[in-house]
Amino acid sequence: MELREEEEEVEAEIDRLPIDVLAQVFVMIPSFTDLARASGVCRKWKRGVKLSLGRRERLSFALLKMDDDSTSRIIGRAYAVRELDISRSRWGCHITDEGLYRISLAKCAGKLTFISLFGMTGVTDQGVVQLIARANALQHLNIGGTFITDESLYAVANSCPHLKSIVLWSCRHVTQSGLLVLVNRCRKLESINVWGTGVPTDCFANLLTIIQVFG
To answer: Do residues 186 and 215 touch, judged by C-beta distance below 8 A?
Structure first.
């Protein structure tokens, strides 16, 4: 009986928290599984979880099993996000071009400074180009392990003037032409990972020369 009364007292204390404070508590919870459970506790907690999404500056789905619908729905509420990681993991993050298109429509798209699509074999140039076209503040991009081509590099070159680093690890469909356009247009570029791309080694010397001139 006493234990029951103590539990009710604790619940009453939590219920007294203002919604803004409750939302800030949820911001510190990294697990979306835990947030989903918290959202089901009561209406106030559900509101708190929604508010917390709007305050997050970083979202990572790297260890989660996500799809186009769930990912775009969460990102659509995350107005303050600056860093977005939807890298493929062993759990399987099944995002397609449709998902990237929906993400490009989110309010945070134009404010993103970091995007990782590492290992996302389900996306193509079509989806990457649509997302990059909106990500004008982008500084760091990881599209390694994907099947993108020079078309995506041209989009980055045209839309991301603030780009500082890009990972193209094992992107075997990019060519010397795309890399040269990228380096020529992105004047703030400091780091480029082209390991495993199959680009001729003499191209690397040209890239280094261009980067040193701009640097």
So the answer is: no
